[in-house]
Design brief:
Blueprint lengths: L8 H27 L1 H23 L2 H24 L5 E4 L5 E4 L1 H7 L2 H6 L20 E7 L2 E11 L5 H10 L7 E9 L1 H13 L1 E8 L2 H6 L3 H21 L3 E6 L2 E7 L3 H6 L4 H6 L11 E6 L5 H17 L4 E6 L2 E6 L11 H16 L2 E5 L6 H16 L3 E5 L8 H5 L12 E2 L1 H5 L6 E6 L19 E5 L13 E4 L6 H9 L10 H14 L9 H12 L4 H7 L4 H12 L2 E3 L3 E6 L7 H12 L7 E8 L2 E8 L5 H7 L3 E2 L3 E6 L4 H17 L4
Parallel strand pairs: 9-10, 12-13, 12-15, 13-14, 15-16, 16-17, 19-20
Antiparallel strand pairs: 1-2, 1-5, 3-4, 4-5, 6-8, 6-9, 7-8, 10-11, 18-19, 20-21, 21-23, 22-23
Family: Belongs to the GdpP/PdeA phosphodiesterase family.
Catalytic activity: 3',3'-c-di-AMP + H2O = 5'-O-phosphonoadenylyl-(3'->5')-adenosine + H(+)
Main location: membrane
Length: about 675
């Protein structure tokens, strides 16, 4: 049954006004009749005529007026519809399942195939699935690509109150509720030009870069004096030619330092060719015994040139701290590394060690006490280096403590010689809880054998004092200890004990190592070099000679590190279960049940596997304390540090490791194999 059109509001009042005026005329007519009978009779006739006309207009002309209003509304609706149809903004209406119900001309032009869109809009834009359609009044905004055009799509839920009341009632009874009474408006904004301009703006941004020659003096000393200028000229030529290929401005600011500027659009080119300038410079050979290596630091995606330069400085420092011969890109907190495959040669001069020793001495003398801390699950190198710093503090008459929580089987034989020894205080070794209550702003905190805060024995100590010294031989990563007053990180060193042994020789004539201290430091060098087989240089043997003169006994140390039968059997089982992956990579799992220090045993297994022919690198997994530890070793063909960094770890080219949490041994092994396969395809192995 059709509903009658009801007139409401001002229009209804307007149609009733003649009737209201009739009442006024009747009142006037009564007044005139009282005043003058003849005039009243005449007025009566006019009033009757007026009332008749008012009634005729109200009852008989009203439908015509309403008809005209309806026709006007219809015409106005057609105008609105046409305006919507011809609107420049693509606009459409979807049902709650994503089917197109209606779209204006611009929308149909963007969609292309209207029939396909009516089946489902996801057939035009695969990203607009039913799952992303708005379920409440919150707009859904998507950025999509179609036919090389970029679009911003806004999806808005529309509640159509009053539409199809009977159907809505029936749907509600069926349990569908508001879905049957709602639609989805879809607006499409073409942002191709905006994206293009944004990309052009990004590509035109300038990037600041720093380039340092790592071994300028050493390389020149390795060649005849008459050829030195030629070597410098060849390096300059390589650098300038490379910079021309990326339209860069390059300026030599010192004999071994360059600064350059280039557009952001060339950054991907540098990344794709993996900064092959590193290799080009390294291959320069005109009789020089030592290859020239360079380091590059870039600061990208910043708002000012000053910040870009600061990022570049941080990146170049990180590159040098990791041993040089590599490029580092700093993009905010994200750090990317390229190169770093060559073996870092030790520097023949010990000037740097002497300078660092004098600086360390000044910091020790300025503080009341010294607290020494290594990495968690400390090894012999960490322990030995801590003992060396302890001796420096005691020589300078300062109270000193070493923080150590878990004593591994490798450290226990050495540590036992210090406990209950009358030459040492009872509080020489502290747990983390004790150290936290001891460290304050008048404490010198010395970090040895680690430079990552999350790997330290007690991370909380780093925030308790502002005077922090770092002595380490591991390559730096993006995670670093903030604002140390002294940082001595030398990746070419074989061990932290080697570095500390050099420093000891410059502290002063009053320093004398005790025999037990010399044993601990000598043991640290032995373990980290695998009995002087790995990463040993001239300075390694000089440090060992100093410790031997100080009373270190090789036989006593060797006897302290003999394995018991259970450990030896576990090691043999791990070796027998080794899988050779991709022909050159040994992977195995070392059991931890019944073993006091399974991580140390895993490292020993990794060293043993390198004695097998055609094995370029070894990887040993050990599960311990709800974590999975991975020890990686190589001789010279593979940079295991790069592999471990992809797995969240780090280390050296030939000695590295990583830790896994929240996964199983099989999952960790799969991650390692996937990483090896990926790096093989990318040419990194």
């Amino acid at each position: 049954m059709k509903k009658k059109v009801k007139v409401k509001g001002a229009l209804q009042s307007y149609l009733r006004w003649p009737l209201f005026l009739s009442l006024l005329l009747i009142t006037m007519d009564i007044g005139i009749n009282i005043a003058d009978r003849e005039a009243g009779i005449m007025m009566n006739g006019f009033v009757v005529v007026y009332i008749i006309i008012a009634l005729v207009l109200y009852f008989y002309k009203r439908p015509n007026i309403l008809g005209d209003i309806v026709r006007y509304a219809a015409d106005y609706g057609q105008v609105q519809k046409q305006l919507l149809k011809d609107m420049a903004l693509p606009y459409g209406v979807l049902d709650c399942q994503g089917r197109l119900l209606w779209g204006n001309n611009e929308f149909i032009e963007v969609v292309g195939d209207e029939k396909l869109a009516k089946k489902s809009i996801s057939r035009i834009f695969p990203e607009i699935t039913e799952a992303v359609l708005p379920i409440d009044m919150q707009d859904q905004i998507l950025h999509l690509t179609k036919d090389n055009f970029f679009y911003k799509v806004v999806l808005r839920k529309i509640i159509a109150n009053g539409f199809f009341d009977e159907q809505v009632w029936d749907a509600a009874e069926d349990g569908h509720g508001d879905d049957s009474n709602s639609l989805i408006g879809i607006y499409i904004y073409d942002e191709t030009e905006i994206k293009s301009l944004a990309r052009q703006n990004q590509e035109q941004r300038m990037i600041t870069g720093l380039l340092y020659i790592d071994n300028y003096e050493e390389a020149l000393e390795s060649i005849d004096e008459v050829r030195r200028s030629l070597l410098v000229a060849l390096v300059d030529r390589k650098i300038n030619k490379y910079m021309q290929s990326i339209d860069a401005i390059v300026k030599k600011v010192e004999k071994d330092k360059y600064i350059f500027l280039f557009k952001h659009k060339y950054l991907s080119q540098l990344q794709n060719n993996k900064f092959n300038l590193l290799e080009e410079v390294r291959t320069i050979n005109i009789g020089n015994e030592m290859s020239v290596t360079i380091s590059i630091g870039l600061g990208v995606n910043v708002e000012s040139y000053q910040t870009s330069y600061e990022y570049a400085r941080a990146a170049i420092d990180l590159a040098l701290g990791r041993g040089g011969d590599q490029a580092v890109i700093k993009d905010g907190d994200k750090i990317s590394y390229y190169g770093g495959k060559s073996i870092q040669l030790e520097k023949s001069t010990r000037v740097k060690a002497r300078v660092k020793a004098h600086a360390l001495k000044e910091f020790v003398e300025a503080k009341d006490k010294v607290v020494i801390m290594g990495h968690a699950i400390g090894d012999v190198d960490s322990f030995g280096a801590g003992i060396g710093i302890y001796r420096i503090a005691k020589t300078l008459n300062k109270k000193a403590h070493i923080v150590i929580n878990e004593v591994t089987t490798s450290v226990r034989p050495l540590m036992t010689r210090f406990i209950n020894n009358p030459d040492y205080e009872d509080d020489m070794f502290l747990k983390s809880e004790q150290a936290i209550g001891l460290v304050d702003n008048n404490t010198l905190l010395v970090i040895v054998d680690v430079n990552r805060p999350s790997y330290t024995e007690c991370k909380e100590l780093l925030s308790l004092t502002k005077t922090i010294v770092i002595l380490d031989h591991h390559r730096q990563t993006g995670e670093a200890i903030e604002n140390p007053v002294l940082s001595y990180i030398e990746p070419y060193a074989s061990s932290s004990c080697e570095m500390v042994a050099e420093i000891l020789q410059y502290i002063g004539d009053g320093l004398r190592l005790k025999q037990v201290e010399a044993d601990a430091m000598y043991a640290g060098i032995m373990i980290d070099t695998n009995n002087f087989l790995t990463k040993t240089g001239v300075r390694t043997f000089e440090a060992a000679a100093f410790l031997r003169r100080s009373g270190a006994d090789v036989t006593r140390i060797r006897k302290a590190f003999r394995s018991d039968m259970d450990e030896y059997k576990t090691k043999a089982e791990a070796i027998s279960g080794t899988e050779v992956y991709m022909e050159h990579y040994a992977i195995t799992i070392c059991a931890s049940a019944g073993i006091n220090s399974p991580t140390v045993l895993g490292a020993q297994v990794a060293n043993e596997l390198l004695n097998i022919n055609n094995i370029r690198a070894s990887f040993v997994f050990t599960e311990f304390n709800e974590k999975i530890y991975l020890s990686a070793r190589s001789i010279d063909e593979v940079n295991v540090q790069l592999i471990m960094e992809r797995l969240g770890g780090g280390g050296h080219m030939s000695v590295a490791g990583a830790q896994f949490t929240g996964c199983t041994l099989s999952e960790a092994t799969y991650n390692l194999k996937t990483t090896l396969s990926t790096m093989k395809k990318e040419g990194e192995l």
